[in-house]
From TrEMBL:
<dbReference type="Pfam" id="PF02146">
    <property type="entry name" value="SIR2"/>
</dbReference>
<feature type="binding site">
    <location>
        <position position="143"/>
    </location>
    <ligand>
        <name>Zn(2+)</name>
    </ligand>
</feature>
<dbReference type="GO" id="GO:0017136">
    <property type="term" value="F:histone deacetylase activity, NAD-dependent"/>
</dbReference>
<feature type="domain" description="Deacetylase sirtuin-type">
    <location>
        <begin position="7"/>
        <end position="214"/>
    </location>
</feature>
<feature type="active site" description="Proton acceptor">
    <location>
        <position position="130"/>
    </location>
</feature>
<protein>
    <submittedName>
        <fullName>DHS-like NAD/FAD-binding domain-containing protein</fullName>
    </submittedName>
</protein>
<comment type="similarity">
    <text>Belongs to the sirtuin family. Class I subfamily.</text>
</comment>
<dbReference type="InterPro" id="IPR029035">
    <property type="entry name" value="DHS-like_NAD/FAD-binding_dom"/>
</dbReference>
<dbReference type="GO" id="GO:0005634">
    <property type="term" value="C:nucleus"/>
</dbReference>
<dbReference type="InterPro" id="IPR026590">
    <property type="entry name" value="Ssirtuin_cat_dom"/>
</dbReference>
<keyword id="KW-0808">Transferase</keyword>
<keyword id="KW-0520">NAD</keyword>
<dbReference type="InterPro" id="IPR050134">
    <property type="entry name" value="NAD-dep_sirtuin_deacylases"/>
</dbReference>
<dbReference type="InterPro" id="IPR003000">
    <property type="entry name" value="Sirtuin"/>
</dbReference>
<feature type="binding site">
    <location>
        <position position="138"/>
    </location>
    <ligand>
        <name>Zn(2+)</name>
    </ligand>
</feature>
<feature type="binding site">
    <location>
        <position position="170"/>
    </location>
    <ligand>
        <name>Zn(2+)</name>
    </ligand>
</feature>
<feature type="binding site">
    <location>
        <position position="167"/>
    </location>
    <ligand>
        <name>Zn(2+)</name>
    </ligand>
</feature>
Amino acid sequence: MENQTRLESWNNYCDDFVNHLRNSKAVLALLGAGLSASSGISTYQGSGSTWQGHLVRDLATRSRFERDPVLVWEYYRHRQAEILSAVPNAGHFALAGLATIKPDFLTITQNVDDLSQRARHPPELLVPIHGSLLDLHCTNTSCNYFHHHNSHDPHLRPQPSPPTPSCPLCTFLLRPSITRFGDPLPPSHLSTIESWFSAHPTIDLMLVIGCACT
C-alpha cells in the first residue's frame, strides 16, 4: 500500500511537471557534466577527479599548462578521445527537441564536449559557457588563429600529432578553447546570457541537469 501511494505521488509530480513545462514560455536550462556521464564521458567528481595520479582541477589550469604543457596536452588528448568515442544520449536529444519547439528556451551548458551540438541542439539557443575541448586557439594573444574541429561524424578519431601542437601562423603553443579552472568566463557568452535575461525578465521554469548541486 505504501509503495502504491509513493508511485501515485510520483506520477502526480511528473504530470504536474509536464504540464508546467508545456505551459512555460521562458525556460532556462543549466547543464553539467552529469548529463554526459551516461554517454561515457567522465566527470570531475569521484573517479573522474584524477588522471594518472594528477588532480584534474590542477591539470585544467593556466599555471599547470604553462609549467608542463606536454603533460596537460596528454590529458587533453585523453579527454578528446573520450568525447569522440561518445554519442549523445536521450537527455541531449530531449533538450534539443525541446529547444526546437520553444523559441524562448535557452540552454547554458558547462560541458566541454560536443554532444549537445551533435544532438542538433539549435546553436542560437545553446551557450557553451566553458567552450569546447575540440576547438583550438593560439596562446599568443597577438595571434587570432582559431581551429574549429568538426566532429559531427561520431566515428572520427584523433590523428597522430605532436605532443604539444604549434600554431601554423606564429608557432606558439595551441590549447583547447575551454574555460579552465580560474579563468574568466568568455564575455561574448556572458553578453548572450545577459541579453536573454533582458528579453525575459520573468523565467517560467529553470532546469538544472547534471550539476554537482543536483
